[in-house]
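Section handout 9: paired folding examples.
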Amino acid sequence: MKKNILYTIRQYSIAASGFIMLLLLASCSSNGNQQEHTGNHATETDTVVGMNKNSKMEDHSNMDHSNEKAKEHQQMDMQPARDTLDELYLSALPANQSVISKQSAVPVKDSIQQFTITGQGYITFDPRRNRKISVRIGGRIERLYVKYNYQYVRKGEKIMEIYSPDLNTYISEYIFIRQKSNDLDLMKKAKQKLLLLGLSNAQIAQIDKNPAAPFTISIYSPFEGYVLFNPSAASSGMTSSGSQGGMGGGMNGGAGAFTGNASTSLDDNSIREGMYVSKDQTVFWINDFQTVLGIVAFSHENEKIAKPGLEVVVKSELFPGQTLRSVVRMVEPVYRGAQKFTQARLYFSNPNRKLKQNSLIRASALVNSGSLIVPASSVYHVGSTAIVWVLKTKTKDGSNVFQARAIRTGNRSNEYIEVLKGLNSSEFVAKDAGYLADSETIIQY
């Protein structure tokens, strides 16, 4: 019985193991078929993807080729527009640099043109006519009859009374020699000494009548003209170089300025009663104003033209209906008030003293210039820069295309302006530059 049971169990185990083996074999075969199927599917997919990639590459190459052709056609379409100057292309130019207008264009001329240069100025004292008034002996000013600058005095007019102890001593010696000595030669020498000290013959005759030394001695003007306390200021910084004289006219002293102490004059070189003067001190100058000096300043462009020898026509504000003629005698650079400029000297004869100090004048001169010229209306000033609108081309409808350009100008008249740089004789410019500019536009040139 036990043997049969063991046998049966062994048979079942053998059958079970066989069944398991069959299952394992079946499983292995199914996995192999699945892997083969999967591999075949991957191969098919790669083939399809490769075909798609090739087709896309062909499509991209076709698109690039078509784009290049489109660009070529576009360039070919744009080139005739530029060559024929299409209105649309010209309208797209910068508005602050190019302008399309129906305004007429005028040629740039190359010819000899006569220009009129002008300058403004004033009349002042001629320093060559300054005459020096100096005292020949020291003392104190008791009375002063010259009160203000530019005061007019006549020849022989009393200008001051001075108290001088030294002069009183010399007068006392003359009186003593006249009363106590019969030596005519000694008396003549004493009188000559008083004359050299500034006394006149009339004053000495008065001393002969009243033999007493006066308290003060009167000083008389040896010249006629206008009193100048500071001639350098009156002549705009120019030094005086006139002939020299003194009381009675003959003896000079000093060096054209006050030679006394600083306390003997004021800041404006004027004098006052009560001041002390030293020997040979210049108290003021006198100018007869028979010849006057005109100081004229020309513009920066005309400085090189205003040369010595240039004939000018001058009009004064005192008599605008009359004209004066003169010649530029000297051109000098001046630095005053932190500014540097050039001024010309003109001399005028003024016998009747019609021309007055600091009266305004206007000088003009004609000069010939051979260079490029344009109408005055063709130049437009942008600050300190002068520009013109140069003709570049024409549109289909006949409008002119102008472009801004900076130039350097020279002489100018009422009609024309000289162009020194920036234009050629073969070019054309707009006739009226002001009509092509907008007040709110920043012009590029």
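Moving on to protein 2 of 2.
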Amino acid sequence: MSHFMRAAKMLLLAGLLVLGASRAADAAKLALVIGNARYPDNEFVLNDVANDTQDVTEELKRDGFTVDRQNNLTADAMRQALDRFYARIERGAVALIFFDGFAIQSNRQTYLLPVDAQIWTEPDVARDGFSLDSILAEMNTRGAAIKIALIDASRRNPFERRFRRYSAGLAPAIAPSNSLVLYSAALGAVAAGGKTDHGLFVAELLREMRAPNISAEQALTNTKNGVVAATKREQVPWLSSSLTTEFSFAGPLPQPSDHKGDATPAKPEQQIPVCETSRAELPPSADDLARDPVIADLSRKIAANTNDIVSRYKRGQVYAIKRAHALAMQDFDVVIRRDPRDAQALNNRCWTRAATGDLQGALTDCNLALQIDPGLSDALDSRGLVNLKLGRNAEAIKDYTDAIQRNPRSSSSLFGRGIATRKSGGDGATDIASAKSMNPDIAKEFAGYGVSECMP
């Protein structure tokens, strides 16, 4: 290519960028804001969700967006809200979705969950959830020139633990061109949650959205870096961009620019984890269990049909998650008497026994589960805990390693292997740090099993 032709092509590209920026500034701007705070299966209301979605809605309106804000949507209501959103998208529009609540990844996709999701097995996720990939694809099909998804849903949730022993976080979005996607935490990781009135992620996001004279992509990059700094690198939002058109939340940019900013923060210096003492949570009271809507529903089904083994197994899982171990054991005993070769039930009883200190009984259950299903990674993880509590550190390391080979994202297996390595005289710091980055509450979870990070 000659020098003249190269210069002409660059001038043409610059002209297209100017035109694109102008059209983006003039295009219709539509937003759907969903805040799901009241999940009946969760032990407390996500107080920050209602406040954060209100603040995001007000900011988007100031930025010229037409906003549909919806709270605590069932699956039917969420489907209707999305259909209304799609129907309003005009060709060339800027379309944005903000979701605050619970989400789960399954089969390498992220699913946003309505408040009435009924999830007990992984296939239930695709049935009851809404695929973010599909939402972005539909926004593109309807003609949106710029697609933006802001997802504050990287939380531990009450559903995921029912079918996997770890929090898998969210999966990367497969987004169409000219899209911008931001998650509140890294892929495969969850952010530390609590009963707060406002979320750090949204606070950083709002501050950057209001900043003048920067592109939307730079605003989200700054949001990511702000969260990283505020949490001392414990929470690292995930950002993906395929934008080819400049767009700014706070108004038109002063001049077109192809400078995107540095979307990758400086790599953190390697940290040597400090041994921390975590206190186990107290088990729930009988009144707390009686008020739990999931337990109440399952108990009604069992009372109506004493042969309902599926409901009995599910209730045992809920009891175990809530640390009502004696009640969980009763349900698992019934399930195993009905089918002595139910490997999943044997694994759950193994895990429950390990948590209560019946280590020999737990070892028997785990060994039998693995005889029936040698590739059952959850049973390997459970047996690793048993061996760890028995002081058989070499066996624990092997079990945890085998579990990690089958499931590299298991924070439980990584943390357990780190502890076993440390007790064997090794370091274990990398495994422990990786586990905490995936699940900030993992040390507290192990404390509930009677295993302290600071055990000699």
